[in-house]
Amino acid sequence: MPPRERLRRLLETQRFQQFIIAVIVINAVTLGLETSTTSTAPYGAVLVVVDHLALYIFVAELAAKLYAYGWRFFRNPWNLFDTAIVVVSLLPTVGGLSVLRALRILRALRLISVLPSLRRVVTALLTALPGMSSIVLLLALVLYVAAVMSTKLYHATAPEYFGDLPTSLFTLFQMMTGDAWSDITREVMDEHPSAWLFFVVFMLVCTFVVLNLFIAVVVSAMEEEHAEESVQATEELGRTVLAELASLRAEVRELRDRVPAPMNGTARAKGTANGGSGSAGKNGTNSGGRNGSGSKGATNGGARKPATRGAAGRRRG
Prior knowledge:
Layout: H1 3-11, H2 14-33, H3 37-69, H4 77-90, H5 110-114, H6 116-127, H7 129-154, H8 159-162, H9 165-176, H10 181-189, H11 195-258, H12 265-316
Helix pairs in contact: 1-3, 2-3, 3-4, 6-11, 7-9, 7-11
């Protein structure tokens, strides 16, 4: 087996993936402990060593993948994602680039590329972006219309919430998230008792309609991604089965070529007939010879008897 193929199989094993996941988790915990003074005081040097060791492991993993897959390494977007995170971690963190030290925690995002379930969710979200764009446009339109209306209606009553258009947009966005929307509504209702109708309709449209549309689009995208993965798995299984059948046929053909062909049935029957004729001829010759000798003896014996009787008559006479 070529060394690249051997290394590729090692990188795709479940044990190696579990090892990388453990390194990512340990590195994330280490970076979290570095934010605590109680942890860095006694164990600061150990945390730095663990952080550098994890970075070296990530670099070695990327180098091994680049050697094993060649140019196919750059065709996988998740490999590019991992490369970008590791490159950011390798940048110098001294001088004006000391802010990049905070970006080391991005290594924890490598769990997305390692765990298949997280990859499936992120892929579904990216697939749902075209559908989400229409929903975002609809939500922005609803927010803009409601902001203009609320500014014109309630700018004098609650200028801190609806004094101008940007303030109204921020207030309505805050209400859409469910943060203190009832307090804002009650403050406006002290001067405008019928204001509840405007705010209730706004909350129903934004919270229960538009946001649920986001969820529906994401769920639909996840179902499509799961269906595509199922089809790919089925195709891969079919290719594997066909490859196994081809190898089995080749082995059976090779065994047939090695085993000698059995004797033909006609040749066997012909040989048996020839052997039977030869035996019959031999037995007939032997029997005939023996029987002929006996007959000859019998004939000779019959000729001798009259001669004996004639001699006896002459003696008597």
